[in-house]
DNA sequence: AACATCTTATTTCTACAGAATTGACAACGA
DNA sequence: TCGTTGTCAATTCTGTAGAAATAAGATGTT
């Protein structure tokens, strides 16, 4: 029996390898171990994961479907170049969908969960030491919880799935462009985010769908504004030695 | 040199096969040759396309990424069951995004193209014989042109790509549920659609983004309302055992 | 540059190991 | 007797590995 070791130490059996590799590679994109523009060579990955190149190839096809890499016929896979424009565009779409989800979720959400979120957000805002690494961690966790709660309560599974895909893309893009520049985890921004989150949660608690959607829109807008300042510099220097060529369309991949 | 023959008679060389197979299978889903719930067997497909099962597998992975089939580990691929709920959910998302695209496109669009569309829509509405098969054809063509024009002019490539993906899904769902029931190509509905299209185009010509988005929203809403009536009946009876057996003695018996 | 050749990497094929399902058949209970 | 249930071998299909085919890029020569 063959098993493969993944980033998280788990191993997987036959029939689960592709998925395991997909997740592992995603994690590597998030952490910046795989950089934008980088050429992924199937043979190398195969050796690294201790499998043949077949499941690697399949994982790459799946990743292209998510939109994290580009597949060029006969020339392999590239971690997607991310321009500020890409991030802006993804965020515009995300904003529209998050707002819709917020409107739909309003009034159908678990109030206890919302109250708990509100409480934790307030506690976090009141806490003295914002440079505590745990502050960052908690802020991110709360962000995830809020967005997941909204998506899960919007009553539209397809919408929820789309949002989780966009979140994934957004995270990948953001983290790739950040890998070089840790200083960006800027505390003022995080506190601002908390306040935005709180505004959303309070509108949701009040059952005011319009206000909640407005707050959500504002929240994402200010995020875009913030990130887009940091992105162009990070994406510029990546040289692409491959000749530019058209057929960007893989199976389900986004064309850009 | 190996080439494979596709549904449309084209053939493709190495490096384009997966894409070709994806498109071919998509077309078969559209036309109802592949029905919801049907089990896709890689070997059969491989023989049918005259390739080994490797590129077939890859195509199936890509199709799963698009959302047209489900992939069950160690148990192959199923053409997705489509419930009325699925269609509703996809349409909700599509409505939100189409409206956003409409708002963004408003004022940046090619006025000549819009005028031309308006003219053709009016001509179509005025034409006497609505049961002419060409009426249907033209109505659909104009629908495509309008939505493509909006998507292409919205200034957000990612949004445009998302819309084209949703359109694909929507078409797949609609056509699968229709394959049995041709009578659904109902002329009154088509004429109504034309009027909705005309309203959108006129608002766009007037540069009234709000009105255009509202018309677009109305257009998609009325579409959903219409389709969702026809879908439950079509999706209910498609239960079948996972495995479809070939007649042992006669190799000529086509698998449907 | 233009061309021929070499090298590397991708794509496809073939073969086989492991899952899942079928179908036969026996044991059991009504 | 009939129908149900459980077991097991046979079959079919999926998933992976490894080899073969071929395309793209690199190198070297003129």
Write up what this structure looks like.
- Two copies of one chain form a homodimer.
- Chain A is mainly alpha-helical and 256 residues long.
- Chain A folds into two domains: 4-79, Orthogonal Bundle (Arc Repressor Mutant, subunit A); 84-235, Four Helix Bundle (Hemerythrin (Met), subunit A) (Up-down Bundle).
- Helix content of chain A is 64%, strand content 5%.
- In chain A, helix 4 (84-105) packs across helix 6 (133-153), helix 5 packs antiparallel against helix 6 and helix 8 packs antiparallel against helix 9 (209-235).
- The A-B interface holds A 14-16, 18-19, 54, 57-58, 61-62, 64-66, 73-74, 86, 89-90, 92-93, 96-97, 100, 156-159, 162, 247, 249-256 and B 14-16, 18-19, 22, 54, 57-59, 61-66, 73-74, 86, 89-90, 92-93, 96-97, 100, 156-159, 161-162, 165.
- The structure holds a DNA duplex (30 and 30 nucleotides).
């Amino acid at each position: 029996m063959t098993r493969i070791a993944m980033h998280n130490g788990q191993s997987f059996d036959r029939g689960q390898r592709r998925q395991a590799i997909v997740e592992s590679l995603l994690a590597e994109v998030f952490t910046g171990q795989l950089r934008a523009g980088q050429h992924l060579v199937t043979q190398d990955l195969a050796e690294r994961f201790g499998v043949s190149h077949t499941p690697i190839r399949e994982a790459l096809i799946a990743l292209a479907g998510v939109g994290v890499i580009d597949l060029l016929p006969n020339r392999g896979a590239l971690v997607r170049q991310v321009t500020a424009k890409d991030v802006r565009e993804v965020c515009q779409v995300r904003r529209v969908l998050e707002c819709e989800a917020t409107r739909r979720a309003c009034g159908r959400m678990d109030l206890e969960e919302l109250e708990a979120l509100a409480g934790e957000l307030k506690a976090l805002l009141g806490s003295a030491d914002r440079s505590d690494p745990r502050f960052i961690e908690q802020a991110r966790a709360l962000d995830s919880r809020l967005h997941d709660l909204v998506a899960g309560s919007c009553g539209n599974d397809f919408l929820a799935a789309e949002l989780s895909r966009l979140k994934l893309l957004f995270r990948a893009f953001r983290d790739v462009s950040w890998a070089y520049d840790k200083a960006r985890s800027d505390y003022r921004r995080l506190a601002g985010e908390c306040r935005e989150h709180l505004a959303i949660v309070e509108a949701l608690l009040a059952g005011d769908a319009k206000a909640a959607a407005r707050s959500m829109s504002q929240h994402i807008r200010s995020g875009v504004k913030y990130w887009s300042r940091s992105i162009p510099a990070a994406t510029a220097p990546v040289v692409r030695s491959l000749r530019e060529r058209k057929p960007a369309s893989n199976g389900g991949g986004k064309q850009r």
